[in-house]
Amino acid sequence: MRLSRFHLHTTKETPADAELVSHKLMLRAGMIRKLAAGLYTWTPLGLRVLRKVEAVVREEMDRAGAVELQLPTIQPRELWEETGRWGKFGGQLLKIKDRKEAEYCFSPTAEEAITDFARQELSSYKQLPVNFYQIHTKFRDEIRPRFGVMRAREFLMKDAYSFHVSDEDLAREYENMKAAYIRIFTRLGLEFRAVQADSGAIGGDASQEFHVLADSGEDALAFSTASDYAANVETAQAAAPGPRPAAAEEMRKVETPVQKTCEDVAALLGIPLQRTVKSVAFFGEQGFVLALVRGDHSVNEIKLAKVDGVGEYRPATEAEILEHLGSEPGFLGPVGAKKAIRVVADREVAAMADFVVGANEPGFHLAGVNWGRDLPEADVVADIRNVVAGDRAADGGEIRLARGIEVGHVFQLGRKYSQAMGFTVLDENGKAVVPAMGCYGIGVSRIVAAAIEQNHDEAGIVWPVPMAPWAVAICVINPKKDPQVDEAAESLLQELKAAGIDAVLDDRGLRPGPMFADMELIGIPHRVVVSARGLEAGTYEYRARRGGEAEALDRAQLLQRLAG
Amino acid sequence: MRLSRFHLHTTKETPADAELVSHKLMLRAGMIRKLAAGLYTWTPLGLRVLRKVEAVVREEMDRAGAVELQLPTIQPRELWEETGRWGKFGGQLLKIKDRKEAEYCFSPTAEEAITDFARQELSSYKQLPVNFYQIHTKFRDEIRPRFGVMRAREFLMKDAYSFHVSDEDLAREYENMKAAYIRIFTRLGLEFRAVQADSGAIGGDASQEFHVLADSGEDALAFSTASDYAANVETAQAAAPGPRPAAAEEMRKVETPVQKTCEDVAALLGIPLQRTVKSVAFFGEQGFVLALVRGDHSVNEIKLAKVDGVGEYRPATEAEILEHLGSEPGFLGPVGAKKAIRVVADREVAAMADFVVGANEPGFHLAGVNWGRDLPEADVVADIRNVVAGDRAADGGEIRLARGIEVGHVFQLGRKYSQAMGFTVLDENGKAVVPAMGCYGIGVSRIVAAAIEQNHDEAGIVWPVPMAPWAVAICVINPKKDPQVDEAAESLLQELKAAGIDAVLDDRGLRPGPMFADMELIGIPHRVVVSARGLEAGTYEYRARRGGEAEALDRAQLLQRLAG
């Protein structure tokens, strides 16, 4: 490919409305252009990258035995009514009326459509298992589309749906898909983690997310140094604490006139923060709840909501706190409540001795507090805290934290959709059974943005080779002045093509500075400069986008380097 | 590919609601499944064919220098208001409101979106010419979707748009695209014609359609035996007639008691039909019009509408006819009208002598009529007839008729969209100029159906090799009973793969009859049978889908045949 025949349009200005670095760089490199809120045109440059991702996804899905098809993007309301999602899906579902006032939606996902297809196509256990996938345009009417293609309304998604006669077979395919996803993200050259997820609103029994690691990621992840264990911090667990030590101190009231936080109290008393306990008041389904976590920990809201008797909850009001504990916030504690309260202690707190809590009296805390002696054992002991970096993991490793961008998700859906839509097949005994389903999504267009969040520097994008629009940029110095330079560049281009290396020849006639800047901005992994001076010396200047010095290589050395 | 791992689902029943043979066969072969009216799922089998067409289109567009991008399918009303098409496009435009009540449409074509992209991207003549294309989902809300994917609402289209500083450069690219289209349809193995078209509502200066020839085609085409000239019968012209012969007969009134048609009058008088003239009464913009065509010809409504003073017209009522000609239909003619009428004679009629027309008196015709002597020369002489098979073409050849399915269209749009949307670039002199545009469409999904209309027989589809889901079907007899048969088939599959031949191995274990019927129904061009008996003899049974006897070939002969 000669760049003079390709529409490349880079800009120096950083777009005002772009927050994320990937959004800025995709605009500056000219990969996308906005048509309207959350709607982007993929320019020729952007589309090259998108197609490379798509090709890897397709190859690995095929390799895993999934079969590609394509469902319509516009789907009738009737199908979505069968599962109740026409009403439940929420505002992200773009609803449409056709000229005959019949109702449709633009598919944001396709469980209904594929189950409808399956119930027409599949009637016998002999046709199962089967895994259908498509790579197709989706639409979610985001209330606040932003971050470019990271959270666009129209986007490209790979969605796969498998059907099974048994849960065991679904579990097998689920593992098969996880392995395929690992191959996909590995091949794309991305640093990623498979993460245990809370399956949330989609429902089902087991699910896992795939995250590209990037500091700008929306999701906080916890992973262990000792295994592949990784989880969203929403659900991550540390190892259970050891046994509770014996009490060594007497309980005593200490004056803490203005010290309302654990940090301030620990500093005043000259003790480690880990010896203090934070008391947080909530009002849950069964009334007033006092949640206790260690001073250096924080309450995990999702975990707390799962505690028996808490359920849907809200922070307690000051009036409720005063009514139950007789104090103002800042000095709260589980000892000597005025009214009956439910004490929910984190596992770590339940294993503490000689700790410090608020005295339920403004200006005072209690030190040397011990369970069973100074207060009854907690009503509930559970893991209700967020993990922190340095926690011990259940596998013996150390927990570290990272931020991630979700680019894939695998679910064991079970029979939620097949049951609702009355889909059965005959099993080996001629009995009608409802097949179990799995679904497996990859945000193909989102991967492009996530890869940039993970791979960029001051000069622009730094593509992993498998996603780069071209692996090699052949920069020609003065192509119009020196025809033999252009010829040498063309012959190199053809030689690379024959070797299966995807290269672009920059014959636009720009000066070296702007030309190199463009190739760096658009992130081409390898740069080769062809100049009259180099040709005289029999060399090409090579430089890697990821850094390092420019080197003068002869043709054989150059080809070896680029093939490597 | 092993068929046991592919979801193939053929049926014997002919679907009740399918009229066209392509629709029936696509359903029976299991290429598509209906989701809702005009909305089809492409099954794994169907998608393989669709992708093959897509790949050829993409390769030839790239070869022609066009650059691929992708526009959103959902496009804002504001853009369509700029060209006035939000209101004018009609009911086929699927209009959508998002959650914020902002209005959008599902793109049925993308002149507005691409011109918006171009005006953001292109500012200098140096960036022109450029031809952007996409292969993407489109939606047209057909009032009566039918014929399967032939006239579906959601479909796959290749649409390209070029931008030029001059009309000459647009004309050059227009020819370039026509050449690309010819390569595309030739490579796909289709019999087709490039046809002059009436550009109709899309507007613009020049346009041409590409039709796949098939008896079931919606469009009637005329083409010449002497050149590439072809036209929709709506606009096709025959060669102009020779000079008018001298009058040889006297005008006379002949009795035609019940003979109201030219055929009946000619039979009664014992003269050729070509000596009679048909008089058809209309009411046009400037009043009563009598259109004259030869007895064996018919009036072409599109041509007539273009005649000066006719414009929008309708058939005249019996009352109007009586008022102007004093007769009832069946005996009408241009001689002796009661009131002033406008006579529009077809070129052929104007060149006739001694002809027969109605006498404007029930039961009578006039014979031996001659222009200038018996009636004044016609008010207008023009080509207002449909061509018929056997007409002489302007190029000296003979006109033949065929039916076609429109699968491509190229337009010179001129400045209609760029002007309306205020898109300018600076020319060489720094002056702002409005670029000329071309647009070039191919109905990718429609090609699949059109190819079947052209290529099928009693047993099913007969794919041209470039579009076939697989070029070769390797049919294994008793794969479970004879493992070495399966092994031989697998080794053949791998050998073909290495030779770049796309083959499928039918290892489903069906009996030969149903297996062969499936492979014929889905149209695989080459069939190879691998059986224990054949292996013993060292042969494979080969048969071409297009017919011919089954042959026993050894491996080398077989490979030669399949490579050829």
TrEMBL record, chains A, B:
Which parts of the sequence belong to the Aminoacyl-transfer RNA synthetases class-II family profile domain? 38-464
Compartments reported by the entry: Cytoplasm
Q: Name one GO molecular function term.
A: aminoacyl-tRNA deacylase activity
Which domain of life, per UniProt? Bacteria
Keyword annotations for this protein, in alphabetical order, are: Aminoacyl-tRNA synthetase, ATP-binding, Cytoplasm, Ligase, Nucleotide-binding, Protein biosynthesis
Could you tell me what this protein is called?
A: Proline--tRNA ligase
Protein species of origin: Pseudoxanthomonas taiwanensis J19
InterPro entries with a match to the protein in the record: aa-tRNA-synt_IIb, aa-tRNA-synth_II, aa-tRNA-synth_II/BPL/LPL, Anticodon-bd, Anticodon-bd_dom_sf, Pro-tRNA-ligase_IIa, Pro-tRNA-synth_IIa_bac-type, Pro-tRNA-Synthase_IIa_type1
User: EC number(s) on record?
Assistant: 6.1.1.15
Q: Which GO terms describe its cellular component?
A: cytosol
- Role noted for this protein: Catalyzes the attachment of proline to tRNA(Pro) in a two-step reaction: proline is first activated by ATP to form Pro-AMP and then transferred to the acceptor end of tRNA(Pro). As ProRS can inadvertently accommodate and process non-cognate amino acids such as alanine and cysteine, to avoid such errors it has two additional distinct editing activities against alanine. One activity is designated as 'pretransfer' editing and involves the tRNA(Pro)-independent hydrolysis of activated Ala-AMP.
Top class in the EC scheme:
ligase
Please report which protein family the annotation says this sequence is part of. Belongs to the class-II aminoacyl-tRNA synthetase family. ProS type 1 subfamily.
Q: Known catalysed reaction(s)?
A: tRNA(Pro) + L-proline + ATP = L-prolyl-tRNA(Pro) + AMP + diphosphate
Q: What is known of its domains?
A: Consists of three domains: the N-terminal catalytic domain, the editing domain and the C-terminal anticodon-binding domain.
According to its UniProt entry, one GO biological process term is: prolyl-tRNA aminoacylation
Q: Name one Pfam family in it.
A: HGTP_anticodon
Assembly mode:
Homodimer.
The gene name on file is: proS
